[in-house]
Structures are given as structure tokens and as C-alpha cells.
């Protein structure tokens, strides 16, 4: 049956902004994160400690993260992406206690996103996960291209399960299944979740991360919820896209997700009106309207 409560892992400030061409001022990012937390989101991914040339938009991580200290002290989780030990050092120096490594189920995307083979990227993550956990940090393992890859086409379930297992074996606390380019459909989601369970991965360690390129994100989410998944990634206003994945557009919009969950009587702790106001505010900063259907419906009354 459906979970009684869903933990929303908000990625708007990271996945949502990483692809923006014009630099968003650090103060605007901090205010965005502050407003997201005020709307009731308890996990707000803040930024990435990656190479600044690879993702220029997030080059201000050192300036941004310390501005969020009061939120962290108030118990808001502020995970950050870390690809390697250099990134981990930068994150730990600022007191980060929740990190995420990000692997790929396909070789092409591993090469384009991390400049590594899949095996080399797992080797790169190994000391990151070990050191983070020694220090008591929580570690999420993202896995991209779990369904389709723009260069390789549909990705075999067994291939995804293999890399997923490897990430968990490194010591990741949770796994987030990325549909990076939004080509998944609900039957495919069910197959992958069942195969993961069959490989000994329990559903309570799995989160889902859908991009809405083909309008399937909400249907895929419902399929995952019916399977027992209770952690769902979403991006306020539907912002987003990956700079290294051809044809990746925005994530599932957090407002669209909350509208559905509210209707199903599933608790999220999120105030939809406050969240929508935040996305309208952010859309004004970015100079274009939010692509979220729910944001549009609720803000054009
Ligand atoms: P590389 O060029 O192979 O790096 O990039 P390297 O290890 O050869 O190091 C080269 C130089 O970069 C060195 O400096 C390092 O110190 C420096 P030098 O000695 O030459 O002066 N360097 C760094 N500097 C700052 N911070 C660091 C860092 N690492 C190395 N962390 C690397 C390899 C992994 C660094 C690069 O490929 C990278 O930064 N990639 C990040 C790409 C990215 O952020 N993509 C978006 C996130 S993933 C995503 O969006 C998908 C997701 O949403 C799920 C889904 O939708 O599927 C999560
Ligand atoms: Mg993503």
C-alpha cells in the first residue's frame, strides 16, 4: 500500500539551478533555500562541491553553505554533492554532515559527467564514502541513467542493479534512482524496483529522482509509492536539468508532487501555498515563468 508519509528531498537549489546560464547571486540562492525550509521542506539539497569549471553556477559553494548555518542548527538537512576527496575536503571544512556521491549506470554518462569509467568512478567514491561515514556523515548515492541514456538508449535493468549494489556496498546509506532524461514509464519503474529488491536492496533505502521531460514524472512517482518508496526527490517550480546530459529538462516539480500527495492524504509537512509563492518569487528572479502546472494553476487565480 501507499506510505502514510513521504520525505521530499528538495533539489531545486542544486539540480534546479546547476544548469542556469546566468549566475544567480549567492544571496538569492540562500534566500531560496531559506524560503523552501520555511515552507516545510526538511531536506533541502544546497549545492555541489564539484570542479567550478564543470558547474560554474555552483562555484560559490564556499560562500553559500556558511550562510545556511542557522537552518542546519534548526535541524534542516542540507545535503551537498561531492564527487571526490577534494570535494569532500571542501564540504567537511564547512561542517557538512550529509553528502551525496553521484554515479552512473552507463559508461557514456560516467565519462561525460565525471571524466571516469563506471569502475573508476566507484573507485573515486570509495574513500569519499568511507571518510564521510567515519566522520558520522550521512551518505546518499545517486545513480543516474537508471532507465534511459541519451547516447546508449534504454538501460538494461541488470546493469542498473549492478551499479546500485556497488554503491550500497561502498557504504551509502540510501540510493536515489535517477531518471536523468525523463524517459522512464511506470512499468519500467516497477521492474527496476522489483529487481533491486531481488538483489537484496530493501525499499526503505531507495529514493526516486524523476525528471519530467516526457510528462511521466508523477505517474512514475505513483508507481514507486505503490511499491512502498517513501523518499521522493523534487525541484521547486520544476526547475532543472543536467548540464552533462543531452535532453535533460526540469525535475518533477515539488508543487505537482505535493498536490498529488495532499490529494492522497499522504503527509509531507509542506505548506503548498508558501512553496508556490517561493517558486513564483524564484521565477521572477530567473526572468521566466515556472513550468510547474500546479504553480501556474495556483498563481493565476
Ligand atoms: P577531472 O577533470 O577528471 O578532475 O574532473 P581531476 O581529478 O583530474 O582534477 C583536475 C583538477 O581539478 C585538479 O586541480 C583538482 O584539484 C581539481 P589541479 O591539480 O589541476 O590544479 N578538482 C577540484 N576542484 C574543486 N572541487 C573539486 C575538484 N575535483 C578536482 N571537487 C570531476 C573530475 C569529478 C572533478 C569533474 O568531472 C566534476 O566536477 N564533475 C561534476 C559534474 C556535475 O556536477 N554534474 C552534475 C551533477 S550530477 C546530476 O545532476 C544527476 C543527478 O541529478 C541525478 C540524475 O538526475 O540522474 C544527481
Ligand atoms: Mg537530476
From TrEMBL:
Pfam families: HMGL-like. It comes from Streptomyces globosus. Keywords: Lyase, Metal-binding. Residues 6-276 form the Pyruvate carboxyltransferase domain. Belongs to the HMG-CoA lyase family. InterPro entries: Aldolase_TIM, HMGL, PYR_CT. This is Hydroxymethylglutaryl-CoA lyase. GO terms for biological process: ketone body biosynthetic process; L-leucine catabolic process. One of its GO terms (molecular function) is metal ion binding.
Amino acid at each position: 500500500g501507499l506510505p502514510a508519509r513521504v520525505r521530499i528531498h528538495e533539489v531545486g537549489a542544486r539540480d534546479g539551478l546547476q544548469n542556469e546560464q546566468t549566475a544567480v547571486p549567492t544571496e538569492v540562492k540562500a534566500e531560496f533555500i531559506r524560503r523552501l525550509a520555511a515552507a516545510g521542506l526538511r531536506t533541502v539539497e544546497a549545492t555541489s562541491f564539484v570542479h567550478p569549471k564543470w558547474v560554474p553556477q555552483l562555484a560559490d559553494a564556499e560562500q553559500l553553505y556558511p550562510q545556511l548555518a542557522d537552518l542546519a542548527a534548526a535541524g534542516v538537512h542540507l545535503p551537498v554533492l561531492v564527487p571526490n576527496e577534494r570535494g569532500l575536503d571542501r564540504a567537511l571544512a564547512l561542517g557538512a554532515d550529509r553528502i551525496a556521491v553521484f554515479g552512473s549506470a552507463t559508461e557514456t554518462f560516467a565519462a561525460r559527467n565525471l571524466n571516469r569509467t563506471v569502475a573508476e568512478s566507484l573507485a573515486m567514491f570509495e574513500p569519499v564514502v568511507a571518510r564521510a561515514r567515519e566522520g558520522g556523515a550521512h551518505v546518499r548515492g545517486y545513480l543516474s541513467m537508471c532507465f534511459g541514456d541519451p547516447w546508449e538508449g534504454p538501460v538494461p535493468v541488470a546493469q542498473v542493479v549492478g551499479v546500485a549494489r556497488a554503491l550500497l556496498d561502498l557504504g551509502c546509506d540510501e540510493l536515489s534512482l535517477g531518471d536523468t532524461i525523463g524517459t522512464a514509464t511506470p512499468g519500467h519503474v516497477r521492474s527496476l524496483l522489483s529487481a533491486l529488491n531481488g538483489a537484496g536492496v530493501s525499499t526503505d533505502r531507495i529514493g526516486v529522482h524523476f525528471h519530467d521531460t516526457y510528462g511521466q514524472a508523477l505517474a512514475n512517482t505513483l508507481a514507486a509509492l505503490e511499491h512502498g518508496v517513501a523518499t521522493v526527490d523534487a525541484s521547486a517550480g520544476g526547475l532543472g536539468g543536467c548540464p552533462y546530459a543531452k535532453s535533460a529538462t526540469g525535475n518533477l516539480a515539488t508543487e505537482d508532487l505535493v498536490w498529488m500527495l495532499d490529494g492522497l492524504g499522504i503527509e509531507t509537512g509542506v505548506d503548498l501555498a508558501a512553496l508556490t509563492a517561493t517558486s513564483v518569487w524564484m521565477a521572477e528572479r530567473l526572468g521566466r515563468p515556472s513550468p510547474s502546472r500546479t504553480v501556474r494553476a495556483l498563481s493565476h487565480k
